[in-house]
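>> received
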Amino acid sequence: MTRDPRQIEQAFRRVRWQDFVLDFKRSWFVWAAVVTLVFGFAYYSMMPVHVAEVVHGTAIGAHQPPSEDNSAPLTIAVRLETDATANVPLPRGTLYRAGSQVEVAIIRGDWPPHPVRYRFVRYVE
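>> returned
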């Protein structure tokens, strides 16, 4: 009695899959990593943020990140009053004006590690 080679291959695949599931259930490290990632994402998502300050700066350059459907926002480099340079995403429909004065909001997270983001507010006339 000979078996079809496909049936034999399916039986081996089924056994390999069952072994993988059993190893996954027994591996505490994988479960710890998954739980850590879920809690880390929840912590970062629930972090309250506030506008720390609004500063002025000069637009010194622009960059369009590559994307397949051209959905990435235009990013401008802004030299702030403190001589620091920040990359700020420009809202859709806002034209880039080289060398113009811009107003940028600095947004800080309230919980450690206190991440900082920058948001374009407006062009200063």
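>> Strands lie at 49-63, 75-80, 85-89, 101-109, 116-123.
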